Amino acid sequence: MLSCSSAFQRVAFMLMAPKLKPQRLHQLAETGTEQLVKKARTMTTESSMKDAFSTYADYLNNFNEKRERVVKASRDITMNSKKVIFQVHRLSKDNKDEVLEKAGKDLEAVRDQHFARLMRELQGTDFWKLRRAYSPGVQEYVEAATFYKFCLSGTLCTLDDINATLVPLSDPSLEPLQINILDYILGLADLTGELMRMAIGRISDGEIEFAQRICQFVRQIHRELMLVVPKMDDSYDMKSKMEVMLQSVIKIENACFSVHVRGSEYIPLLGDDAPTSYLLGAADVE
């Protein structure tokens, strides 16, 4: 009797319980499926983002390592190019061939060793991104090459001449890496400072004609660059160098003018054997 009543109670409970409509069951099934798909999609997205950022990290690490190598190569070019300039400054009328021969060999060593290393790092890459890292070394190399060429032949070493010497260093399978026009002009602006020092030194040795040729050469460079600089976009560095260049021109002109006007007074003391100085032949002052 008890079992019969409990059976009736269970049946009544089942009849009283709310029944889920087929549409509701279908919605619940779809919701569960969407959640599973969304979870799988989230896991896939996180995995792809991790892969992407891992790729970015590898690129930045490689880029920074390359930049450090480029900076090191640029410093080596700068240091050894300065040595070439110092070697050329030892020039005099008695040792011209010897000094220029050694300077030429040193310049070839800079190109074949240090500049070749820089080109291997930059060739085939976005080298323009690293211009600030290697530009100082390139400018110093241009300064050394043009300074040597002027003292050797009295002419200007053009951008095409410098780039022609770099072609053998490039990988034939890739586009040859060339010095850009901006770095060449910046290096050419620095050349005038070295020529000013050379002119003052030649005057002190009595080589007035050589100093006058330097004066005319520096004037011409300054005049031509005065036409180019106003049209340059990235010309902040160039404008500051133009001010220094003008000072170099003025110093050379003043030195040559002083020698021309008062040369009879002190040129014999600077290397001329002509007895025209008021000190030559005078009694020693006690």
From TrEMBL:
It comes from the Eukaryota. It is found in: Cytoplasm; Nucleus. Keywords: Cytoplasm, Nucleus. It holds the Pfam family Translin. The keyword rRNA-binding does not apply. InterPro entries: Translin_C, Translin_fam, Translin_N, Translin_sf. SUPFAM superfamilies: Translin. Belongs to the translin family. PANTHER family: TRANSLIN AND TRANSLIN ASSOCIATED PROTEIN X. This is Translin-associated protein X. It comes from Camelina sativa (False flax).
